[in-house]
């Protein structure tokens, strides 16, 4: 019993030998432990911008490495770092050139090549198969990018990528730790697919393997078995979001391999003296998965020698009671080798491994001396309960920690005395480890007050508990952190996906969705392209209604607009903290010219004197700030009578004034101006009209026509379907012809936008406004901002994406087109015919909505469609279903949708 308790106390048991959450030490650019000689470059602009000046956080000579330039899109210039030994690299930090304040160059996106031997170079790819990594947007901030998967390499090359010819300069740091295993490559039969009727399909391939594949054998590389990620008890589940079932494991089926075993070769950097091998195995016996029955390993002392005849191995004790995934530790008897060949025998139909590591008494690869305070905070994760403790273990031990498997797998040699001896030894060792742990905890407490805390304190507290990609940014010399969740379009058929969707390979970084909260109504779009998410908690609504920006605000009239409901949950509200696919990608299908043509011509509405706006009440609050109802004195004359307004007899006209909040960031300000420019070019009876602006002084305001009935969502949600009952009881109601007419109007507005090739990106009832005559006008062009910006919207602030309205390709690929607007229109129709009483997919969590998106992509009949609303005529529901076609070409055009709806109205 004591033994079991002691085992359970072992923290290392839930971790791999190299834990990416802990392995985050600066590898020596900034502190100079990477020598100048180890920094080379394909070119440099001047001596004073040579590779040795590429040190993050330092500002020497001209302040950064700048390749000879300017850099053209087709150029491939690189900065190369030799780490002198194999390292497990988990993050890259980049920064632009400050040059004592004179610099203005930085690298927006870059690629990474790595090599273990200096000969074979491999391009780093995210789990999505994407090579491009988001870099900097200014010269000061440090942007840290988590490498998922991590890289095991000695040499790394950073390759700036540019879409336009420009001068680029950069400083950088690499983060990680020494690669104690010394493993250069493993070979194994290709992982297989488990398809059992009645169960989800599990894809058990080694998807990040960086070697070769020939006749179903993978060789010459490393992959998921050395990425530090341990699989869960249920092999269908994974902590890695946006991946597929079975992601964590590489698995093989017994009868497919003939001999009843899986043979793997392991090649090491040097000759080593092996004490043990640890294999993390699944044991979900109810699904025919068990740890291996026995393993037998041969050793080759040198590359050119033969395999030594005597194998080393064990027979395991199989376990039909505990389905936990577990490490099986295989003693290797201190045999010496440079290469190992192990045969793992099946105990059941399937065998699945998630990680393999080796403990060897090698000539120790001396880790670079890494001060404790340079370790970056780990992204918190459920699999990472005691990060600091394990850091201590990792950083202080020169040999890997002794780890015993749990449940224990013992050699079945029948010798009780050996077993007892082993147990006693283990207990003694455990006692030592416990003492060590307690000691580490004590030291950690002391260290928390020491320099390492400095860095942690700089963290802005925006880490998510489930981050998969983390981008860190800092301001000036004081780095701060921000967690970024980028969309990860990788699904279970990555090869197919890449094949089918070539734009993926050009688009930016891997990304992951982390969604877990119910949706909210408030919406803060970002500059696009996207895409990262984390859950936003309730957002405080400002109560400062009468701010005094207008002439004579009348405090007595500051009553909330009846239509404003800040708390109605609407859509998946998720934060965008970083963007992807910004340059060099085809992700955004709106032709650049279109938005250019909207924006380049400037604002075609006039500056309205703000003192002639008289505040009446607050209508609502949106992404930029509050929307006020105001009287606009003399607006009719201001417009020269061109725009017919409802009150033409000289009396002040009521308008809605959208005001940029005082604390808005520069980005938000730019976005606000961009929305003004876009709106000023739109002219259609079903698009909300911009009447004037106040942009000469702050706060920036846009003046639009006032839509008395507020937004369509709250309008419909407060009404019932017209019937004798509603008539008799005077209940606010809408008729079916009303709903059809509303739908037709929206389709008319969208047809107009589509004719301009303008993509709205956020069509939903909440973004349609209703006037007193039930005219519907589409509003909110906030999502249209920064369509082509290479920058990303970084906050303080957050932004959210309406995933329940988004087409699968918008979520998975960041691709927004008129066809994805058609999809959103289908959802908007569904909202209309459910009278906005329910959120789309209300029974699904955000994660499930994302999963469902994957099903739409796979199109194997498992996707869940929104149900047929009872009020909706069958032909209209068919139209909705066509809007949700997987292939964009199968979706109807807005022209067709409009015609269809007009027929209904008639
Ligand atoms: P927005 O910032 O555009 O998302 O607007 C926030 C809220 O203000 C909307 O949901 C509406 O309830 C209200 N609102 C915005 N524009 C108008 C308008 N032109 N007329 C009436 N209400 C509006």
Automatic annotation (TrEMBL):
Q: What is its EC number?
A: 2.7.10.1
Task: List the record's Gene Ontology CC terms alphabetically.
Answer: plasma membrane; receptor complex
Task: Name the Gene Ontology molecular function terms of this record.
Answer: ATP binding; collagen binding; protein tyrosine kinase collagen receptor activity
Quick one: where is this thing mainly located? membrane
Gene Ontology BP terms: ossification; positive regulation of neuron projection development; positive regulation of phosphatidylinositol 3-kinase/protein kinase B signal transduction; regulation of extracellular matrix disassembly
The Protein kinase domain covers which part of the protein?
A: 613-901
What family does this chain come from, according to its entry?
Belongs to the protein kinase superfamily. Tyr protein kinase family. Insulin receptor subfamily.
Q: How does it assemble?
A: Binds hydroxyproline-rich sequence motifs in fibrillar, glycosylated collagen, such as the GQOGVMGFO motif, where O stands for hydroxyproline. Interacts with SRC. Interacts (tyrosine phosphorylated) with SHC1.
Question: What is the protein's name according to its record?
Answer: Discoidin domain-containing receptor 2
- Organism this protein belongs to: Acipenser oxyrinchus oxyrinchus
**Name of the gene encoding the protein in the UniProt record:** DDR2
């Amino acid at each position: 019993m004591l033994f079991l308790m002691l085992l359970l106390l072992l923290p290392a048991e839930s971790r791999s030998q190299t834990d990416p959450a802990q392995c985050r030490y600066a590898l020596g650019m900034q502190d100079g432990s990477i020598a100048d000689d180890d920094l080379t470059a394909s070119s440099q602009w001047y001596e004073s911008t040579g590779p040795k000046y590429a040190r993050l956080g330092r500002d020497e000579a001209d302040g950064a490495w700048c390749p000879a330039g300017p850099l053209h899109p087709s150029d491939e210039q690189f900065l190369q770092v030799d780490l002198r030994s194999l390292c497990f690299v988990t993050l890259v930090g980049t920064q632009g050139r400050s040059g004592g304040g004179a610099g203005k160059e930085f690298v927006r996106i870059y690629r990474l090549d790595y090599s273990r031997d200096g000969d074979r170079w491999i391009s780093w790819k995210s789990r999505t198969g994407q090579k491009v990594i988001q870099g900097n947007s200014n010269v000061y901030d440090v942007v840290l990018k988590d490498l998922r998967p991590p890289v095991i390499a000695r040499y790394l090359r950073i390759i700036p990528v540019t879409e336009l010819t420009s001068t680029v300069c950069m400083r950088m740091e690499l983060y990680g730790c020494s690669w104690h295993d010394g493993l250069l490559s493993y070979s194994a039969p290709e992982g297989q697919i488990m398809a059992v009727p009645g169960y989800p399909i599990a894809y058990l391939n080694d998807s990040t393997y960086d070697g070769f594949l020939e006749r179903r054998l993978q060789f010459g590389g490393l992959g998921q078995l050395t990425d530090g990620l341990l699989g869960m008890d249920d092999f269908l589940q994974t902590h890695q979001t946006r991946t597929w079932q079975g992601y964590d494991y590489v698995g093989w089926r017994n009868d497919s391999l003939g001999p009843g075993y899986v043979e793997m070769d392991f090649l090491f950097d040097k000759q080593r003296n092996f004490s043990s091998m640890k294999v993390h195995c699944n044991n979900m016996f109810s699904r025919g998965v068990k740890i291996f029955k026995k393993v037998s390993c041969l050793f080759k002392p040198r590359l050119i020698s033969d395999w030594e005849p005597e194998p080393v191995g064990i027979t395991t004790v199989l376990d039909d009671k505990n389905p936990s995934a577990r490490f099986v530790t295989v003693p290797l008897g201190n045999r010496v080798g440079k290469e190992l060949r192990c045969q793992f025998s099946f105990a059941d139909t399937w065998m699945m491994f998630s990680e393999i590591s080796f403990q060897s008494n090698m000539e120790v690869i001396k880790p670079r001396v890494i001060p404790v305070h340079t370790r970056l905070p780990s992204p918190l994760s459920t699999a990472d309960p005691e990060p600091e403790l394990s850091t201590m273990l990792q950083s202080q031990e020169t040999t890997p920690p002794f780890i015993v498997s749990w449940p224990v797998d013992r050699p079945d040699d029948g010798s009780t005395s050996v077993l007892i001896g082993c147990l006693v030894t283990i207990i003694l060792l455990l006692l030592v480890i416990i003492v060590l742990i307690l000691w580490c905890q004590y030291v950690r407490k002391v260290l928390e007050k020491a320099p390492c805390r400095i860095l942690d304190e700089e963290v802005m507290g925006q880490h998510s508990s489930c981050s998969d990609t983390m981008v860190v940014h800092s301001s000036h010399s004081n780095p701060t952190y921000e967690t970024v969740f980028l969309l990860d379009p990788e699904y279970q058929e990555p090869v197919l996906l890449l094949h089918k969707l070539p734009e993926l390979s050009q688009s930016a970084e891997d990304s992951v969705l982390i969604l877990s909260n119910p949706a909210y109504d408030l919406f803060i779009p970002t500059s696009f392209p996207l895409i990262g998410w984390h859950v936003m908690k309730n957002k405080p609504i400002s109560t400062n209604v009468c701010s005094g920006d207008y002439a004579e605000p009348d405090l007595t009239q500051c009553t909330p607009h009846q239509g404003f409901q800040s708390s109605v949950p609407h859509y998946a509200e998720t934060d965008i903290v970083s963007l992807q696919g910004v340059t060099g990608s085809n992700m955004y299908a709106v032709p650049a010219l279109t938005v250019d043509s909207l924006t380049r011509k400037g604002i075609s509405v006039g500056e309205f004197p703000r003192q002639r706006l008289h505040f009446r009440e607050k209508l609502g609050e949106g992404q930029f700030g509050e929307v006020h109802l105001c009287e606009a004195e003399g607006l009719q004359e201001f417009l020269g009578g061109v725009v017919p307004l409802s009150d033409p007899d000289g009396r002040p006209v009521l308008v809605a004034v959208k005001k940029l909040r005082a604390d808005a960031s520069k980005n938000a300000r730019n976005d606000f101006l961009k929305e003004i420019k876009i709106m000023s070019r739109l002219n259609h009876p079903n698009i909300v009209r911009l009447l004037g602006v106040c942009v000469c002084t702050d706060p920036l305001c846009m003046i639009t026509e006032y839509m008395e009935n507020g937004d369509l969502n709250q309008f419909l949600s407060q009404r019932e379907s017209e019937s004798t009952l509603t008539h008799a009881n005077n209940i606010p109601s809408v008729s079916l012809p009303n709903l059809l007419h509303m739908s037709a109007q929206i389709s008319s507005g969208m047809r107009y936008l589509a004719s301009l090739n303008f993509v709205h990106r956020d069509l939903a009832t909440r973004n349609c406004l209703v006037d007193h005559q039930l005219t519907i006008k589409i509003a909110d062009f906030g999502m249209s901002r920064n369509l082509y910006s290479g920058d990303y919207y970084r906050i303080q602030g957050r932004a959210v994406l309406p995933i329940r309205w988004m087409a699968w390709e918008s979520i998975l690929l960041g691709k927004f087109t008129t066809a994805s607007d058609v999809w959103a229109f289908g959802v908007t129709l569904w909202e209309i015919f459910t009278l906005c009483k329910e959120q789309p997919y209300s029974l699904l969590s955000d994660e499930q909505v994302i999963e469902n998106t994957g099903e739409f992509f796979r199109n194997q009949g498992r996707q869940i469609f929104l149900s047929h609303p009872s009020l909706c005529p069958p032909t209209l529901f068919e139209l909705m279903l066509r809007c949700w076609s997987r292939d964009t070409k199968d979706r109807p055009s807005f022209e067709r949708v409009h015609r269809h709806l007009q027929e209904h109205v008639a």
